[in-house]
């Protein structure tokens, strides 16, 4: 079943968020650059004593209070301070919309972070010659993949054609985030394969699912130039749009619609296509539902079409992995994410762990799925568009890349490479690494390393920064995850204990990815 129905209420929330973001005052954390080093640390004698016992520095920079001069400057200019944090060197505050730009440009302000479940962030201020000196607030997914490196390289998908096959684009022409597409005529064509007689593609709504494609488009290219908000990477790409999924019922004919849309886009020279649709079970006629075993990359009509598009037409096809991860009767990816050669995208949280709902790759496939992942609170449908925008930027930089080369660069730039797994693939792609790969420069990162733990060793210790959050993927073999967890380092290391069911563990730290191989007499 198409995953559209699973996120309908979330789509409505997202639309409401956009209107609220642009129209109302919001709460933010205002992070400050420095402190008055002559002020006294606000800690007790007992605190100092405890630190001495633990071998920690007795007085720390984070103990110093917030600079009162900075606080007064904010309050004197109608900024309502709600809370102060000396550890973060920040204050939470209500900032009127018209004051946002003023606050960002204050010399003592490092960044502002909206207090929002959508986790918008302000990217670091670039050098004077970069990005026209703009301060752009971006979605957390953009920050996670390193949008600033694309921006500073002048990459925004310009000159790239993107096809979007989805369930409708209702309201796209009224979205503040998509206004530039209509003002600049960046939408080159639209077709409705569900209702070919439709004339008003953006103003006529047939089902609530007609919002879905609009939000997908938002995640690929969304930006408010006036408010300096960016939620998509490919803001200067051109688009062809196709509606192939009706949303109010599920039947195999929708796969045929999808195939027709692919052919149409291929005929127009579209090389990069995003489809945040997927089919598994739950068809209106139960006899049409698939079985997990049929997610083999070659059974469904949509899989066959996708395979042809990739292998024979050279199309770069980015597909959402599916939202069945919490469904114990299914769990695995849906089709066409099962096709070898397509870029199947899963969803992660802020620290790159798989979101519970994100579908996993089946063990019976000989290739890895998903391929990569990125942050999304609201379904893999909104993770795939992020990667589509990422790919568009790479194509702008090197238009001659074929889909195999592009997929390889994408995976090699990701956080877990080369230790991919069936939870999040090779992890979260990184713009800096991807651009270095294109330019054939070194990453200036530590090379991934393998640590073999001998059979007589019961545990292994991994050096990390004190307080660092480390992500672990415990696997039964090279690629298939038994479970994932996160650990916060108490000191400067993380200790992992041997478990007989775990054969390998991938450790993701802030600096590197490490593969632990638990040696036994059988390996």
From TrEMBL:
<feature type="domain" description="Peptidase S8/S53">
    <location>
        <begin position="157"/>
        <end position="427"/>
    </location>
</feature>
<feature type="active site" description="Charge relay system">
    <location>
        <position position="381"/>
    </location>
</feature>
<keyword id="KW-0378">Hydrolase</keyword>
<dbReference type="InterPro" id="IPR000209">
    <property type="entry name" value="Peptidase_S8/S53_dom"/>
</dbReference>
<feature type="active site" description="Charge relay system">
    <location>
        <position position="212"/>
    </location>
</feature>
<dbReference type="InterPro" id="IPR036852">
    <property type="entry name" value="Peptidase_S8/S53_dom_sf"/>
</dbReference>
<dbReference type="InterPro" id="IPR015500">
    <property type="entry name" value="Peptidase_S8_subtilisin-rel"/>
</dbReference>
<keyword id="KW-0645">Protease</keyword>
<protein>
    <submittedName>
        <fullName>Peptidase S8 and S53 subtilisin kexin sedolisin</fullName>
    </submittedName>
</protein>
<keyword id="KW-0720">Serine protease</keyword>
<dbReference type="Pfam" id="PF00082">
    <property type="entry name" value="Peptidase_S8"/>
</dbReference>
<dbReference type="InterPro" id="IPR050131">
    <property type="entry name" value="Peptidase_S8_subtilisin-like"/>
</dbReference>
<dbReference type="InterPro" id="IPR023828">
    <property type="entry name" value="Peptidase_S8_Ser-AS"/>
</dbReference>
<feature type="active site" description="Charge relay system">
    <location>
        <position position="166"/>
    </location>
</feature>
<comment type="similarity">
    <text>Belongs to the peptidase S8 family.</text>
</comment>
């Amino acid at each position: 079943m198409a995953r559209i129905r699973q996120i309908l209420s979330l789509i409505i929330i997202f639309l409401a968020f956009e209107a609220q973001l642009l129209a109302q005052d919001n709460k933010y954390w205002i992070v400050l650059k420095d402190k008055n080093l002559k002020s006294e640390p606000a800690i007790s004698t007992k605190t100092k004593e405890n630190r001495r016992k633990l071998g920690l520095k007795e007085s720390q920079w984070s103990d110093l209070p917030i600079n009162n001069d900075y606080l007064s400057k904010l309050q004197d200019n109608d900024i309502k301070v709600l809370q102060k944090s000396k550890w973060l060197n920040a204050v939470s505050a209500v900032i009127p919309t018209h004051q946002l730009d003023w606050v960002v440009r204050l010399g003592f302000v490092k960044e502002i972070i909206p207090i929002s479940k959508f986790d918008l962030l302000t990217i670091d201020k670039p050098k004077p010659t970069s990005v026209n000196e703009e301060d752009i607030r971006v979605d957390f997914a953009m920050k996670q993949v390193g949008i600033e490196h694309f921006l500073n390289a002048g990459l925004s998908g310009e000159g790239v054609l993107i096809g979007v096959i989805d369930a409708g684009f209702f309201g796209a022409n009224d979205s503040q985030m998509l206004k530039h597409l209509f003002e600049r005529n960046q939408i080159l064509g639209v077709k409705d394969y569900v209702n070919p007689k439709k004339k008003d593609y953006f103003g006529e709504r047939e089902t609530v699912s007609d919002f879905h494609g609009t939000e997908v488009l938002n995640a690929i290219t969304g930006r408010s130039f006036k408010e300096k908000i960016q939620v998509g990477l490919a803001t200067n790409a051109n688009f062809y749009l196709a509606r192939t999924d009706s949303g109010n019922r599920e039947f195999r004919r929708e796969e045929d619609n999808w195939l027709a849309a692919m052919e149409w886009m291929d005929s127009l020279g579209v090389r990069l296509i995003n489809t945040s649709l997927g089919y598994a079970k739950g068809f209106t006629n139960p006899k049409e539902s698939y079985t997990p075993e049929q997610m083999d990359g070659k059974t469904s009509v949509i899989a066959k079409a996708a395979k042809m598009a990739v292998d024979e037409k050279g199309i770069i096809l980015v597909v959402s992995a599916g939202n069945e991860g919490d469904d114990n009767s299914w769990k695995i990816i849906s089709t066409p994410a099962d096709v070898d050669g397509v870029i199947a995208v899963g969803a992660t949280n802020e620290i790159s762990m798989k979101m519970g709902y994100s579908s996993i790759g089946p063990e019976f496939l000989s290739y890895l799925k998903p391929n990569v992942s990125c942050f999304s609170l609201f379904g893999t449908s909104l993770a795939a568009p992020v990667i589509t925008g990422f790919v568009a930027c790479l194509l702008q930089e090197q238009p001659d890349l074929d889909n195999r080369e592009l997929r390889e660069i994408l995976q090699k730039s990701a956080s877990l490479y080369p230790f991919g797994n069936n939870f999040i693939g090779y992890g979260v792609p990184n713009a800096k690494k991807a651009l270095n790969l294109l330019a054939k420069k070194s990453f200036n990162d530590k090379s991934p390393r393998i640590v073999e733990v001998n059979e007589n060793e019961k545990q292994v210790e991994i050096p990390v920064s004190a307080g660092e959050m480390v992500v672990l993927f415990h696997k039964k073999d090279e690629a298939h995850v038994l479970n994932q967890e996160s650990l916060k380092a108490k000191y400067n290391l993380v200790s992992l204990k041997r478990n007989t069911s775990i054969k390998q563990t991938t450790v993701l730290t802030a600096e590197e990815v490490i593969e632990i191989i638990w040696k036994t007499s059988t390996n």
